[in-house]
Structure formats: structure tokens, C-alpha cells
Design brief:
Layout (H helix, E strand, L loop, with lengths): L2 E8 L5 E4 L7 E4 L2 H22 L9 H6 L7 E6 L16 H10 L3 H13 L4
Antiparallel strand pairs: 1-2, 1-4, 2-3
């Protein structure tokens, strides 16, 4: 399984930001490091999926030495994020929910899609 290098950055008074030097424009953030790393997996999967859908070539992951040689990358903490393989294609849905439920979801999650997908997986666990 391929892994892409993500750089985690933290500025004062900001969330933890994550960027992928091999994939310009693939960025995300999280309030905590753990949330930022979870968002990084999702951002990477979505970015690679969009590139494939658009017919763009998917670059091979660079090695850590090549990434850290760039002075602009030296202030980030490098982490490996696994590239998805065999992942289901994401499907866009239009869902109608009570406003109060949406507010409750937003209180506990910054990503509604991920929250709803995880809730559905939990509900469907064991149901076949």
C-alpha cells in the first residue's frame, strides 16, 4: 500500500493544518492532531479520487528526504497517510434532516458526511 507524506503545521491561534507536498491543493485541518490526521485520510482519498475521475495522472509518493529537502517543508511534522485502494467511490447525496439534528451533528463533528457514514456503518453492523 502506498503512503503519501503529509505535513502537519500549527500556527498560534489556529487549528492543525495538513498539506500534501506531492498533491498541491490537497489540504485539510482539524482542531486536534488526531482530528487533523483523520481529516488527512479523507482529504487524500477525495483528492486522489477527483484526480482519477478527471483523468489526471496520480504522482508516485516522494520519499521523506526529497520532501524535507525543500526549505518550505521544514517547519512541518511529516506523517505518512495511507493511500486508499479498492475504496468505494463516493456518491453525492441530497439529504433532508431536521434542523435541530443538523445542529447536534455540527456540535460533535466538523464533517457531516463522515459523521453520517460512520453512524450508518454502526447501524448496519451485523445486518446482512
Amino acid at each position: 500500500m502506498a503512503h503519501y507524506i503529509a505535513l502537519v503545521h500549527k500556527d498560534p491561534k489556529s487549528d492543525f493544518g495538513v498539506s500534501f507536498p506531492d498533491l498541491p491543493g490537497c489540504i485539510t485541518a482539524g482542531r486536534t492532531i488526531q482530528e487533523a490526521l483523520e481529516m488527512a485520510k479523507e482529504a487524500l482519498a477525495g483528492h486522489l479520487e477527483a484526480m482519477a475521475r478527471d483523468g489526471d495522472p496520480i504522482p508516485e509518493p516522494s520519499n521523506i528526504d526529497a520532501i524535507m529537502e525543500d526549505p518550505e517543508n521544514r517547519d512541518g511534522v511529516a506523517v505518512l497517510v495511507p493511500a486508499p485502494h479498492g475504496r468505494d467511490r463516493a456518491v453525492r447525496l441530497n439529504v433532508t434532516l431536521p434542523e435541530s439534528l443538523v445542529k447536534r451533528i455540527d456540535e460533535v463533528s466538523r464533517n457531516r458526511s463522515r459523521f453520517l457514514a460512520e453512524a450508518a456503518e454502526q447501524k448496519l453492523a451485523g445486518v446482512r
